[in-house]
Specification:
By secondary structure, this protein is an alpha+beta fold. The chain has eleven helices and 23 strands. The radius of gyration is 23 Å and the shape is globular.
């Protein structure tokens, strides 16, 4: 697949009938409510007070739209992502990029000049989300992740750096030396860059190479104006600056999290912006929580699950990260099972990031049908033999059940994990699970009798 950009994806959605264009003038405060009512992705062409900007949102808030971005069927999304992980393409470096057509430095830096509204009723302020954040460590090299930023002043935001991540590790190393950590925040990119930035890659991995594998072509990077970092040259907007060496000391939140809950106030570092660059006719990308985040999480979690199964020498047939688990905390997989592999598969799936529960079935079960899955769990599971409980595993702070608020500033929570082996138990002949078939279905046609 030839490389596409953010605007190409918007065009693809429109051609598929999945984009609603709003041409009438819209106050920024009206945008979240209009986005919530639209069944399609939304594109606002005329924003009150921001004549130079347009805004797009809810671009991947359904699995169908995510599949459009990946040019595959909805059931093949995880396999498409896994395929890209096997054909990494390193980025290329270019001298100039559309993301730097307009440059603001010094007194011209003003975050209020960007049209991002208050998203949810209980939010602590307007947020920048849907970000690709680049950082660097002298020993481990560049890193790319996705972090949200809460407006504080025209030149400062908070940054959600509570959970365990490579950039948190980089920041802690800089903090231990009393130094700031330079970062660059790119917004308005193709979903491939967003997926790559969300993938839990080993610390020395190049996330831009993962994006290149998804595109089938190298991602062009351009050097930032004020920090020693590189960002995608075709981004709509870039913020350059540094995380102040103050640690987890500033109030941040609440925010409507991807777990569908309005989060609590937390302590986080502060991002001070030195430079803002953007296109001449910029489009601001407003990621719609929670579903857009959930669907961006799902293929990353699913692909990691596929890889974990293969490393464990288990053959996967299908896999899904249910949207009810926010595409993040749960995995359901069907496998071609050999003796003992139900449990091996569970241990593999539970090793993925913060996955909290996993269910494994045989390949005769359609895991995308909740009734099929319930049937397997009802008739193939004995709780004392087929349920695995692990304790003390890595957790994410926005899961209220881990009681992260009791840990104090900068504390990292742990969680318990559960696996359910819903495969046919060893020693039970498959004939005991032979499904009923209605007699004579292949001999008659109902329409002949109507």
């Amino acid at each position: 697949m030839a490389r596409k950009g953010f605007r190409d994806f918007v065009d693809d959605l429109e051609q598929a009938g999945e984009l609603c264009r709003v041409t009438k003038e819209v106050d920024p405060r009206q945008i979240p409510g209009l986005m919530a009512q639209a069944p399609e992705a939304t594109f606002f062409e005329n924003i009150t007070g921001y004549p130079d900007w347009r805004l797009a949102g809810a671009l991947v808030s359904t699995r169908k739209r995510l599949a459009i971005s990946m040019d595959c069927s909805q059931d093949d999304i995880a396999f498409r992502f896994e395929e890209a992980l096997g054909r990494l393409i390193d980025p290329i470096h270019v001298n100039e990029g559309a993301c730097q057509e307009v440059v603001h430095t010094g007194d011209d830096v003003d975050l209020t000049a960007i049209p991002y509204p208050l998203m949810h009723v209980f939010d602590g302020g307007p947020y920048l989300s849907g970000t690709l954040v680049v950082s660097n460590d002298p020993e481990y090299g560049p890193n790319v992740g996705s972090y949200r930023l809460m407006y504080r002043t025209p030149r400062e935001t908070g940054i959600d750096l509570v959970s365990s991540s490579d950039m948190r590790f980089y920041y802690q190393r800089a903090l231990d030396q009393g130094k700031p950590l330079e970062i660059a925040v790119a917004i308005g990119l193709h979903p491939f860059e967003m997926l790559a930035s969300s993938y839990k890659a080993p610390i020395r991995s190049n996330e831009f190479a993962i994006a290149g594998g998804l595109h089938g072509e190298a991602v062009p990077l351009v050097k930032c104006k004020t920090v020693d970092l590189e960002v995608p040259a075709d981004a709509e907007l870039v913020l350059e600056g540094e995380l102040l060496p103050i640690g987890w000391t500033a109030d941040e939140g609440p925010f409507g999290e991807f777990n569908q809950i309005s989060g609590d106030v937390k302590w986080n570092p502060i991002f001070r912006v030195k430079c803002i660059t953007h296109r001449r006719d910029p489009i601001f990308y407003l990621l719609q929580m929670p579903l857009e985040n959930d669907w961006l999480s799902a293929p990353v979690t699913e692909a990691a699950g596929l890889q974990a199964l293969r490393v464990a020498s288990v053959e996967p047939v299908s896999i899904r990260a249910p949207v009810g688990s926010c595409g993040y905390w749960g995995l359901v997989a069907s496998i071609r099972k050999r003796p003992g592999e139900g449990k091996n598969a569970l241990l593999a799936l539970l090793s993925v990031a913060e996955v909290k529960y996993a269910v494994v079935t045989d390949d005769d079960i359609n895991i995308h049908d909740p009734d099929e899955l319930d049937w397997a769990m009802a008739l193939r599971v004995q709780a004392d033999k087929d349920v695995i409980i692990l304790t003390g595993a890595r957790a994410k702070h926005i899961d209220p059940s881990v009681r992260a608020w009791e840990l104090g500033k900068g504390g990292l929570p742990t969680t318990a994990k559960m696996g359910i082996d819903a495969t046919i138990p060893e020693g039970i002949p498959k004939k005991f699970y032979k499904r009923i078939e209605q007699y004579g279905v292949d001999r008659v046609r109902l329409e002949d009798f109507l």
